[in-house]
Structures are given as C-alpha cells and as structure tokens.
Design brief:
The protein is α/β, with parallel strands linked by helices. The protein has eleven helices and 13 strands. Strands 3-2-1-4-5-6-11 form a seven-stranded parallel beta sheet, sandwiched between helices. A two-stranded parallel sheet has the order 7-10. Helix 3 runs parallel beside helix 5 and helix 5 runs parallel beside helix 6 (150-168). The chain is globular. The termini are far apart. The mean pLDDT is 97. Bound molecules: uridine-5'-diphosphate-4-deoxy-4-fluoro-alpha-D-galactose.
Length: 338
C-alpha cells in the first residue's frame, strides 16, 4: 500500500522537487499550500513529471480546523513540513509575521499530528543555526549560536519545540534537516525556483542577470579571509536535497519518541566567484558583475560535514554545482521576462 505523506509548502521550491521524488519512490504526496510564495501552475508541472494526479489542499497551516480536516480526510503516515517564510532580510522588518507564521504553523501541525496519530515528521531547518562556525566543516556536534535574524531564530525555536514534543507525543519520530544552500532546478526544466521580486539569493540573481532581467550582479565583498576573497557556501542541487527527504522518511521508520538533526549539504565549499565562473562556463553567458560592499550578517564561510547523512540516511549528493547551475540556467530560460 502506498503511504500518504503530507507535504506542507509542497508547491514551493524545495517542496515541489520533494513531491516529485516522493512519487518516484512510491509514496503518495499530498500538498498543503496557501500559495503565498508559489504559483498554482506548479501543480500541473509536478503532475507532468510524475505522470499522476496530486491532491492539493489550499489553506494555512496556522488554521487548526483546516489542518484537522485535511488530516482526517487523508490519513497520512508522515509529514514533511516546508511551509514557512524564508527571507532573512524581510524577517528583520517583519519579525511578528515570521514568528507567527513559522512557529504557530508548527504548533498547529504538531497538535494535529498528535490528535490524528500521525507519527513521522521531517522538518526544514537551516545551517543558519550554526551561526559563524569556529571549525569547518560543520558537524552536527558543532555548537549552535544565537540566531542573528528572526528567520534564523524561528528555525532554532522550531527545532527545540520538536525535540520537546517527541517526548510528549508517544510514537512521534522527527528529524530536522539542516539545509545548506539549495540551488538548481529539476532537469526537465518544468519546476524550479520562482523568487518574487528581486532575488536575495545568489543563484537566481545570477540567472536573472544573465537573462537580462537585472542589470548586474553585485558580489558582496571580496576581502574575506578566503582563497579568492569571496564568501564560501555549500551549494546543494535541489534534486539531491529532495531525495534526502525521502531517505529521512525511511530512517524514521520503526522509531518512537525519537528526534535527530542532520546536515544536508555536499561537504564541499564553493566561493561566490567560483559560482560566477562556473555559471559562465556552463551557460556560455558572460555575466555582468561588480564587486560591492559586504552584506550585513553574511558568514565568511560555511560548509557541511556530510558524514552523518552518509551514515544514518545512507544518502549523499550525486550532482555537482555545475549540474545545478546548468539546470538553474535551463529553468531560467523557460521563464517569461516580467
Ligand atoms: N551574494 C552576492 N550577491 C548577491 C546575493 C548573494 O554576492 O546578490 C553572496 C552572499 O554574500 C553569500 C552567497 O552569495 O556569500 C550566498 O548568498 P545567498 O543569499 O544565496 O545565501 P545565504 O548563504 O546568505 O543564505 C542561505 C539561505 C538562508 C539561510 C542561510 C544560512 O538563503 O535561508 O543560508 O546561512 F538562513
């Protein structure tokens, strides 16, 4: 029997790719989304890739009655919880929106999971919980640091809430996946990242600049203590990241009152300039860019230790930054200029 898995935020960037991978592995993904930061057209795209109809429930995860009705109707065995606000800068200006949306949705979700005996949860966390790491690569033993942004704080608070709830909800098992920097798009070019307005993340800014949507990319600082002076991040192909979620559901099987957190990255650091140079190589486009001032809050360098994800999830990345930038560019080329 196929297992029903609720995917909150399933029409979003990482959510949509995960829905595709769940279907490929024989699960029945069921999307909950309020489409506040995604397009309804994504659903048809997902269905074109999977070749099957996807059930979608439109509503807010903060709405207890709505969530209770969806769970009663679909009887899921597990949940992958993506639905959240995610813009670091915006969270500084709208802290209450971020705390309300990101924390209350989790509280409601956990209540409904307990009431309906839904016992598996995969939560989208972030490497932001490590702040500025003292040692690289960052392992799960690395200390977490107080979050700089309200967004980052919602991830730390959420991890604590889940850790406490697995004690109180008999049978619950949960994993927080601490994502590094997801980039790229599905190789079909049917789904990908759809940032609203001016992107704050590097790769959509790069592809939009190459496509002529933006005049030039500003590289935020080249005087960091790194080999080429620009920041270093661990860029992971979104399809690899999506597959890690499916592996995590397998890891949760048979576990009770269990909580764990796992880094999801490639283990390899790539500088901003390396991203730019690799993009130029794979796309054949010359990128218009300049060096600008540092961006407040940017960590100099961070990349993941991937030992734990290999050991416990039996998962590692299969795709490279080149693959991701090629797929991001192919996806960008399908988008009409706004
Ligand atoms: N960058 C530029 N120019 C741009 C955009 C980004 O030079 O126009 C640089 C940044 O300075 C940084 C790198 O590109 O060095 C990556 O920046 P992103 O904004 O794409 O990603 P971040 O690493 O800043 O942020 C990501 C996620 C957050 C998460 C954070 C945790 O987007 O959700 O990692 O470290 F909180």
């Amino acid at each position: 029997m196929r297992k029903n898995i609720i995917v909150t935020g399933g029409a979003g960037y990482i959510g949509s790719h995960t829905v595709v991978e769940l279907a490929a592995q024989g699960y029945t993904p069921i999307i909950i989304d309020n489409f506040c930061n995604s397009e309804k057209a994504v659903i048809k795209r997902i269905e074109a890739i999977t070749g099957e109809k996807t059930q979608v429930f439109e509503g807010n995860c903060t709405d207890k009655q709505f969530m209770t009705d969806v769970f009663a109707h679909t009887n899921p065995v597990g949940v992958i919880h993506f639905a959240a606000y995610k813009a670091v800068g915006e969270s500084v200006n709208k802290p209450l929106d971020y705390y309300y949306n990101n924390v209350v949705s989790l509280l409601v979700l956990l209540e409904v999971m307990k009431e309906t005996h839904c016992n598996q949860l995969v939560f989208s966390s972030s490497c932001t919980v490590y702040g500025t790491p003292e040692k690289l690569p960052v392992t799960e033993q690395s200390p977490t640091q107080k979050a700089i942004s309200p967004y980052g704080n919602t991830k730390q608070i959420a991890e604590d809430i889940i850790k406490d709830q697995v004690v109180a909800h008999s049978g619950l098992s949960a994993v927080a996946l601490r994502y590094f920097n997801p980039i790229g798009a599905h190789p079909s070019s049917l789904i990908g990242e759809l940032p609203l307005g001016i992107p704050s993340n590097l790769v959509p800014f790069v592809t939009q600049t190459a496509a002529g949507w933006r005049k030039e990319l500003t590289i935020f600082g080249n005087n960091y203590n790194t080999p080429d002076g620009t920041n270093i991040r661990d860029y992971i192909h979104v399809v690899d990241l999506a597959k890690a979620h499916v592996k995590t559901l397998e890891y949760l099987n048979g576990k009770n009152n269990f909580y764990d957190y796992i880094n999801v990255g490639t283990g390899k650091g790539t500088s901003v300039l390396e991203v730019v140079n690799t993009f130029e190589k794979v796309s054949g486009q010359k990128l218009n860019y300049k060096i600008g001032a540092r961006r407040a809050g940017d960590v100099e360098q961070i990349y993941a230790s991937v030992d734990k994800s290999k050991d416990v999830l039996n998962w590692k990345t299969a795709l490279t930054v080149e693959d991701a930038l090629r797929d991001a560019w192919n996806w960008q080329k399908t988008l009409p200029k706004p």
